Predict the structure.
Amino acid sequence: MKPLIKSVRGFTPKYGQECYIADNATLIGDVLMGDRCTVWFNTVIRGDVHSIVIGDDTNIQDGAIIHCTYQKAKTVIGSKVSIAHGAIVHGCTIEDNVLIGMGAIIMDDAIIKKGSVVAAGAIVLPGTVVESNSVIAGIPAKKIKDTSKEMHEVIARTAKNYPMYSKWYL
């Protein structure tokens, strides 16, 4: 079994060196991914209606959905970002060194600035701007505190570990 890498509207997904894409992951259309990224089982990255750009050393975990909005909102994800299991990232910008928790939903035109954490299950409403080094949680998501030194270490360690985990599957 191989991942589904599908061209649409003349766009074919492109990804950098040393990327791991799980057997049943799906990449469609206008997707540009950097080096050492990992895309895990049942993940869908669907750039059929707009572009999706992903930096280096980013992991998109099991069952996550990355999409955008036709003629309105592309998706930009920075480097060293961890998008946890079952998260939905839609037509937004996520800067570098961010952790998106399990089941979180990030909606159109939201901006999650560097060094931030979106808690599991949080819903980030359209147009929300999350300042750098913030922890946000809830429905709708609101800032609950600043990220600590320990939380920055978790963000860095998570991004670093996923390429190691991917080697177990080769």
